């Protein structure tokens, strides 16, 4: 069959400071009907830009400077607005990363679903509503008959993502572009969405471009994979071929990330006093308890990973330890001494000992302060260093996080990449000279290669400075690579607790088992096997509810 | 020629619009043919084509109107054309002055200031120039003004221009007001009084409203509740009437304490305007306090002062600056309103608001004596010019600071 989409020598430029700099340097792409192509690369590789260009669209401040994008014989680069208007939404559809941000909160889901078919004259509203319910059923949404008549905020994130896929399907397009549709979801929810997207794309024989930075996900979804690096194609091959025999070094390095693993340290002696000890903590927001009798210890120089889905109480536990949320019952011990429950009642030294690194480096660093000021503040506040001594210490810290001091001292956070910002967050925590650091999902917003760099840095610092970490994460690959002990949480309770090796060897608690088996693996047959094993009705939320 | 074919202004307008619609269609079609279907013309919405044609028509009309004679056949001055010419001249002079000022800024000064001027739009350099001139005039009013602000001369002569042939007096280039004071001198002193007092009042309103607003956002709880409800109560009373009421009370105190009434006016207007600033500062502050860097600072054990002034304030600067520009103009107008009602800046101090009020009747002369009619507009123009200039500068600062965040 002939190619549905044919991109030739696509060049795209973006404007920065009055000059145009290339973003995509001549990429070719072919897509047959019914085929799924995975686009993979780090952020800034140009994946989304190519995805949008496949619709003949560019973001503001970005322009297509050369090449052609031929969709079914029509060149979208030179096509008139009217021609594109007839194609987009009808024959080419787009599914964005954040369904929550892409739905209009003021309209019911079904009203947004029917908009495209009615506008394009594909179907009448009534038939389109019926079709939408049918699609919801195919995508295995709960209560397909009535879910469309809710507002977006009344539906969970995974369900919303599937509703958006249904919306993209509403005109039965020939091509759908999926831009990181599962990146913002929990592992257990991700499976549901992946399975339903795969089924529906198969069923209607729709071609798709699947953009992601997660290799294991793309292995499940794509027939072919194209690897991108800074606007250039690295290589392209059939999925199985690519996974088993990557040719280029860059691709191999992407594959190798998952192999970083730190040996587990020997357990702390039985009589050692833990650095942090959480004792029978019960905490509540308002009148509802969100933590129930949580207890665990963190020993000196060790890393305890706290895992669980969103809403399981991981971050709330951290808030109890830092004193932002005084527990209703129970206590927090630091070096054997009881800490005051409220952070305002703690001494400066107690505050200094426990530091925190945040998930979103964007909101964790004050955008109006330079890196030198951000790191220098705790140096001065706790250490009392001023002037040249303070500057010297900040330089030392910048060296420790592997950023060139002379170059970064006077920069603002907005001038740094995501990984660099996260490093500055680490330096700010180190500046207090703490014993214990809470790392709250510190790698989940980063690319795999960058995340790996952060993990290695944290591991090195632990060896050098004897730090203890509480590592909050939902990513089990991260747990595997850095943790010594694991605490599994669900609905505000500790479900399982033990050394890492015990956790990753059966038998598990059923919930741990579910979490572990939901992590996508690089094997392209993994999802198919898992579906066969669990049955389609036992995925994600459904499986959690049955427990 | 009556009935069906009677053309009035409305039907002329309708005909012109229909012609323009036709012209827009032709314009787009011709553009498509001539450029060989370039995307600019091919994808041009009909509305945009109409816009181009309408703009072109207005431009032609403006040029034609500008070239009309200023005096009609029967010797009566054509006031419309005169005012239009003055407006065009003023606009061109402003543009040239702004351009020269920017050129100056680009070639003189430190590397930093040169860079600032290089990226500055013309509107901003115009705004800065005007503000600098106002500040200069306000500070050196005593040295610049040819006469005292309260000095009364024998004659009242409102003819501006100082041309004896037209009835002016060379000693008073802008004429003298209804009781014979030099208008130019009063304009200059007005800059000192009105602008100075408005500036102090606005700053005071921002200090009160801003710090309380941030405090409410940071501490929340009962303090927020108390302050917010208090502000609600103050805002529920119409502001001008409230100010009048307070001024009446203050006038009694002022006499008893021997403090000038103007001090009370500054305090009262600052208090009333600080409620608006409070609401903005609180709303902006609430969005900032949820950020992780605030949490990090709190967990570090930082005090309230550091949180408000070092962490929150720099991030709230952009909306506060925009508000400052607007608030300054409102305060300005409030002072003028109070002066108009007789409780504001007290005579014989010169104040632009009072000047507009006192000379307002002369505006009726516009049709046959344009030079006389502009007398009240001079003070009004001074207010308008400063308002525009301040807002140009604020716009530019906003643009700059939002660009930094990207």
UniProtKB/TrEMBL annotation, chain A:
Residues 5-255, 276-516 form the ABC transporter domain. SMART domains: AAA. One of its GO terms (biological process) is peptide transport. It is a peripheral membrane protein. GO terms for molecular function: ATP binding; ATP hydrolysis activity. GO terms for cellular component: plasma membrane. The keyword Signal does not apply. PANTHER family: ATPASE AAA-TYPE CORE DOMAIN-CONTAINING PROTEIN, OLIGOPEPTIDE TRANSPORT ATP-BINDING PROTEIN APPD. This is ABC transporter. It comes from Thalassorhabdomicrobium marinisediminis.
Automatic annotation (TrEMBL), chain B:
The keyword Cytoplasm does not apply. The keyword Mitochondrion does not apply. InterPro entries: BP-dependent_transpt_permease (IPR050366), MetI-like (IPR000515), MetI-like_sf (IPR035906). This is ABC transporter permease. Residues 191-398 form the ABC transmembrane type-1 domain. It is a multi-pass membrane protein. Keywords: Cell membrane, Membrane, Transmembrane, Transmembrane helix, Transport. It is found in: Cell membrane. GO terms for biological process: transmembrane transport. It comes from Thalassorhabdomicrobium marinisediminis. GO terms for cellular component: plasma membrane. Belongs to the binding-protein-dependent transport system permease family. The chain crosses the membrane at residues 6-27, 48-66, 86-105, 126-145, 195-219, 226-247, 253-272, 324-345, 365-394. Pfam families: BPD_transp_1.
């Amino acid at each position: 069959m002939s190619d549905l989409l044919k991109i030739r020598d696509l060049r795209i430029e973006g404007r920065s400071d009055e000059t145009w700099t290339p973003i995509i340097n001549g990429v070719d792409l072919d897509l047959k009907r019914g085929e799924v192509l995975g686009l993979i690369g780090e952020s800034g590789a140009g994946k989304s830009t190519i995805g949008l260009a496949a619709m003949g669209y560019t973001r503001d401040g970005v322009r297509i400077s050369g090449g052609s994008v031929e969709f079914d014989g029509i060149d979208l680069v030179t096509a008139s607005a009217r021609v594109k208007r007839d194609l987009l939404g009808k024959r080419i559809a787009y599914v964005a990363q954040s369904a929550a941000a892409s739905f209009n909160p003021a309209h019911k889901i079904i009203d947004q679903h029917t908009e495209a078919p009615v506008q394009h004259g594909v179907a009448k509203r009534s038939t389109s509503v019926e079709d939408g319910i049918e699609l919801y059923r195919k995508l295995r949404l709960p209560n397909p008959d009535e879910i469309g008549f809710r507002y977006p905020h009344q539906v969970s994130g995974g369900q919303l993502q599937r509703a958006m896929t249904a919306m993209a399907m509403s005109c039965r397009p020939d091509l759908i572009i999926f831009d990181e549709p599962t990146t913002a979801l929990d592992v257990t929810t991700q499976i549901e969405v992946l399975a339903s997207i795969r089924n529906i794309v198969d069923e209607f024989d729709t071609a798709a471009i699947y953009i992601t930075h997660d290799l294991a996900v793309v292995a499940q979804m794509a027939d072919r994979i194209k690897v991108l690096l800074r606007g250039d194609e690295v290589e392209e091959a059939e999925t199985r071929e690519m996974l088993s025999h990557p040719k280029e070094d860059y691709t191999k390095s992407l594959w190798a990330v998952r192999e970083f693993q730190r040996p587990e340290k020997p357990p702390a002696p039985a009589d050692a006093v833990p650095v942090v000890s959480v004792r029978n903590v019960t905490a509540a927001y308002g009148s509802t308890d969100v933590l129930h009798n949580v207890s665990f210890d963190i020993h000196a120089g060790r890393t305890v990973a706290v895992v669980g889905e969103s809403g399981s109480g991981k971050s709330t536990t951290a808030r109890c330890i830092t004193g932002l949320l005084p527990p209703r019952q129970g206590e927090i011990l630091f070096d054997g001494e009881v800490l005051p429950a409220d952070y305002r009642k703690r001494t400066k030294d107690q505050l200094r000992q426990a530091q925190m690194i945040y998930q979103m480096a964007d909101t964790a660093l004050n955008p109006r302060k330079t890196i030198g000021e951000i790191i220098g503040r705790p140096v001065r506040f706790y250490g009392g260093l001023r002037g040249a001594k303070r500057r010297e210490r900040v330089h030392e810290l910048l060296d420790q996080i592997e950023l060139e001091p002379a170059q970064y001292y006077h920069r603002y956070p907005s001038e740094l990449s995501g990984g660099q910002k996260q490093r500055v967050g680490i330096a700010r925590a180190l500046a207090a000279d703490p014993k214990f650091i809470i790392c709250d999902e510190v790698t989940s917003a980063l690319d795999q290669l960058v995340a790996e760099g952060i993990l290695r840095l944290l591991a090195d610092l632990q060896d050098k400075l004897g730090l203890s970490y509480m590592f909050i994460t939902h990513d089990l690959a991260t747990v595997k690579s850095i943790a010594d002990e694991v605490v599994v949480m669900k609905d505000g309770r500790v479900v399982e607790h033990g050394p890492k090796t015990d956790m990753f060897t059966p038998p598990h608690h059923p919930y741990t088992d579910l979490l572990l088996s939901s992590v996508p693996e690089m094997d392209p047959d993994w999802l198919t096997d898992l579906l066969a094993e669990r049955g389609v009705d036992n995925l994600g939320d459904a499986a959690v509810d049955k427990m | 020629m009556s009935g069906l074919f009677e053309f009035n202004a409305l039907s002329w307008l309708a005909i012109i619009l229909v012609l323009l619609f036709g012209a827009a269609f032709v314009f787009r079609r011709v553009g498509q043919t001539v450029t060989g279907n370039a995307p600019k013309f091919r994808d041009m919405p009909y509305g945009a084509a109409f816009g181009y044609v309408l703009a072109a028509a207005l431009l032609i009309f403006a040029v034609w109107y500008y070239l009309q004679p200023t005096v009609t056949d029967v010797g009566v001055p054509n006031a419309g054309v005169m005012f239009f010419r003055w407006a065009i001249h003023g606009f061109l002079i402003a543009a040239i002055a702004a351009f020269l000022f920017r050129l100056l800024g680009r070639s003189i000064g430190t590397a930093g200031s040169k860079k600032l001027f290089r990226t500055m739009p013309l509107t901003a350099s115009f705004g800065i120039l005007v503000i600098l001139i106002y500040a200069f005039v306000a500070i050196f009013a005593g040295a610049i003004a040819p006469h005292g602000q309260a000095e009364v001369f024998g004659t009242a002569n409102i003819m501006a221009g100082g041309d004896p042939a037209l009835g002016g007096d060379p000693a008073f280039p802008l004429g003298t007001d209804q009781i014979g004071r030099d208008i130019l001198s009063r304009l200059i002193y007005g800059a000192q009084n009105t602008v100075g007092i408005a500036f102090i009042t606005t700053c005071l309103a921002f200090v009160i409203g801003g710090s309380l607003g941030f405090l409410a956002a940071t501490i929340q709880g009962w303090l927020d509740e108390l302050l917010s409800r208090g502000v609600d109560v103050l805002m529920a009373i119409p502001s001008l009437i409230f100010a009048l009421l307070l001024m009446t009370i203050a006038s009694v105190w002022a006499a008893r304490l021997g403090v000038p009434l103007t001090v009370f006016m500054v305090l009262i207007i600052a208090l009333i305007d600080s409620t608006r600033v409070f609401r903005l500062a609180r709303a902006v502050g609430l969005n900032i306090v949820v950020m992780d860097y605030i949490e990090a600072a709190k967990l570090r054990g930082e005090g309230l002062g550091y949180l408000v002034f070092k962490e929150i304030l720099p991030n709230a600067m952009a909306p506060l600056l925009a508000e400052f520009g607007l608030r300054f103009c409102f305060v300005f107008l409030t002072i003028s309103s109070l002066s108009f009602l007789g409780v504001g800046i007290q005579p014989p101090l010169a104040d632009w608001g009072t000047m507009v009020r006192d000379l307002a009747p002369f505006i009726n002369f516009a049709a046959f004596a344009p030079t006389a009619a502009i007398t009240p507009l001079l003070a009004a123009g001074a207010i308008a010019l400063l308002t525009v200039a301040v807002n140009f500068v604020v716009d530019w600062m906003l643009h700059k600071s939002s660009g930094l965040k990207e």
